[in-house]
Specification:
This protein is about 85% helix and about 0% strand. It is mainly alpha-helical and about 300 residues long. The two termini are about 25 Å apart.
């Protein structure tokens, strides 16, 4: 799956779940119409919407788990948990829709909603973690290729090793650029962009500086220049790693260190539609927040 599409799917379905589940639970808060008693047609429609959203999410989640190179077992288990909680939610919401006056059935549905959103949140966090792990793996490969360039013993050896370094750089730039687009925090995006720019600039200078050193190994200036460029490349790699994991000062200030998009999305959702979401978020959000903390 294209990773831009994957990211869009994750965000889209998470918002879809939040909207549909909170609307359903909010409907239960209002109670049945005074004109009609018994079954709630609106609740049945909303319950069907949540069931369909769950099924759609499961299909995409299974595809993500199947194609992921990291955390495959954890992702598969998370998908199965969403399936299990989705079935519990389906039964609970259907029973509530049949008897909307029952406070017991309402409570059961709210608990099911918490569990479902918690399972969905966990799956999304794991998918996001897998993306970050993939980037970190690329960074590790580039670091090893960089060290190989530094240890080149002659110009031909340097040319061969730098060629491999260049190939890994192209792969890293693609993955890092994608992650940059995914970052929500402007500071982290800027940090990633700056690190990528510094890496590209200094990687270009790396070959020339290394070549000059190999030609004149006894000249202190050539060694100092090569070492400086290597240090700049290493710092750029560290900057990409920091931004990718959302460990910037801005993230820490906002209390989102290491969890990035989802925590911020939950905060923003609180004020997106006050009447519909305010009370319901207080009901269902604790489980999601606990899951966020547990995963991090």
């Amino acid at each position: 799956m294209d990773h831009h599409l994957c990211r869009a799917i994750k965000c889209l379905f998470y918002v879809s779940f939040m909207l549909q589940v909170t609307t359903l639970v909010n409907t239960s808060n209002k109670g049945p119409s005074s004109k009609k008693k018994g079954r709630s047609k609106k609740a049945h429609v909303l319950a069907a919407s949540v069931e369909q959203a769950t099924q759609n999410f499961l299909e995409k989640g299974e595809q993500i788990a199947k194609e992921s190179q990291d955390l495959k077992d954890e992702l598969i288990a998370a998908v199965e948990d969403v399936r299990k909680q989705g079935e519990t939610m389906r039964v609970a919401s259907s029973e509530f829709a049949d008897d909307p006056c029952s406070s017991v059935k309402r409570g059961t549905m709210v608990r099911a909603a918490r569990a479902l959103l918690s399972a969905v949140t966990r799956l999304l966090i794991l998918a996001d973690m897998a993306d970050v792990m993939r980037l970190l793996a690329h960074l590790k490969i580039v670091e090893e290729a960089l060290e190989a360039v530094k240890n080149a013993t002659n110009e031909q050896d340097l040319a061969n090793r730098f060629k491999e370094f260049g190939k890994e750089m192209v792969k890293l730039n693609y993955v890092a650029a994608r992650r940059q687009q995914e970052l929500k925090d402007p500071h982290c995006r800027d940090e990633m962009a700056a690190a990528r720019g510094a890496l590209k600039k200094n990687a270009t200078m790396l070959y020339t500086a290394s070549q000059a050193f190999l030609r004149h190994p006894d000249v202190a200036a050539t060694r100092a220049n090569r070492d400086y460029v290597f240090k700049q490349v290493q710092e750029a790699i560290a900057g990409i790693s920091s931004a990718a994991q959302a460990t910037s000062p801005t993230d820490e200030k906002h209390g989102h260190a290491g969890i990035g998009e989802l925590a911020a999305a939950l905060n923003e959702f609180d004020v997106s539609d006050g009447e519909c979401c305010s009370d319901t978020i207080r009901d269902i959000r604790p489980a999601s927040n606990k899951e966020l903390s547990t995963e991090v």
